[in-house]
Amino acid sequence: MSTAASSSGGEDLARGNYSDAYPPPKAAAPLQSVKDVREDAVGKTVQVRAWIQSARMQGAKMAFVQLREERSWTIQGVVIAHPTGTPVSRQMVKWVGGLQLESFVSAEGIIQRAQVPVTSCQVTDYEILLTKVFCQARGPQKLGLSLAAANKAVARIDEQDPGEEELQNLNINKKVVPAAGLATHLSNPVMHKRAPVQQAIADVRKTVRHIFSEYLESMGFNQFEPPCLLGAASEGGANVFKLPYFGRDAFLAQSPQFYKQIEIAGGRKKVYCIGPTFRAENSNTPRHMTEFTCLDLETEIIDHYHEVRHLLEDLMLHIFQQLQQRCQEQIELVHAVYQSPAFLVPEPGREVRLTFAEGQKLLREEGPEEYCHVRDDEDMSTPQEKALGAIVRRKFNTDFYILDRFPESARPFYAMLDPENPGVTNSFDYFMRGQEILTGGQRIHLPEVLESRIRAKGIDPSSPGIKEYLDVFKSAGVPPHGGG
Question: What is the pTM of this model?
Fold first, then answer.
């Protein structure tokens, strides 16, 4: 319904240039992306489609709006009443200045140079002199989560209900905006998604997937799609989601591990997959997530499992380097909200590769006093890993490093034992800032050895899921392989 004619102030000569209208009148001007506004656009009439990030009156004849496209791309729109009442009337100015935040509009206007830099918008040197504004979808009178609050770091993860303070409709231009808790974000998914920092994080995640795929495809890897719904727990244990499936139990995949190995057994030499993984881990820490995206690979081993270690190291360093080139703007935005020291990557030829025993030795000699008696045959705790990360950063000037040859007690049954020292495995972890981000190594490919290791871990080789896995290696000869 049009609201143009209902405004006060006599006959409205601009009533055809603004209204609540879907679909809006077809625009004659070409569509202009806000992020692409340059000097060559000055003087041209364009159409923009955007959300109202802010709207304010400047007297009775002028209003300013911030028009936002995807992420944080904003440009100032100016509405000035013409003495003749057309193309912009006072009624139109009042209507535009009163648009609710987060309303979606299509607008036409002339690109002009800003008289002074518009520091509140990402496009600082240009603005749009608006002549037509049509609101296709109005925002609510009161937002449950403002864009300003959504664009701040999540304040709390343990709250159950949003507080009254967080439900206030906070203007994007206020200098001090209280951060919202996780429950408020979850209760307002649209505004959470519209926050520039969340879109930047999504862009980085997407780019990581693309770089991962590009690199492996260039190395001759083949992508495959492992199942997520399984007839038995893929790796046993308690951290698996069980659900009813037509009169029987089904399980969500904890890992694509077994399916990568089946691909190698099935004749593929190099494979990778990208997909969701589920863990029933009831813990509110950054290390425990019930669902996450797994990027996995598996490859034949020709001579030594370090072939896999070197491949993954090169891949990770390539991803770090490419992210800096492709996502510099997004990374800077995320750092501005979630502040942290610069991530240090080793210089070429100075990569840090420690054995697990060497890592424990560093903890004993240079770590906190409580770690002076850590043993080489016990797994590291999370605090130990973080302490080692701090030592490595200080000693080697890097946040990225590898721990190799983990003890047998800290690895699953399918990890290949070192033939010269069965107390350790041909396996490794990769770390960023003392946080494990990748586990990999050589898998056992001989069925009799695998069955022996399954029994040694106290698992019944005939149990559901395990039997089918073991049968893969009994059914045909499988080449040595590994991955992460």
Answer: 0.90
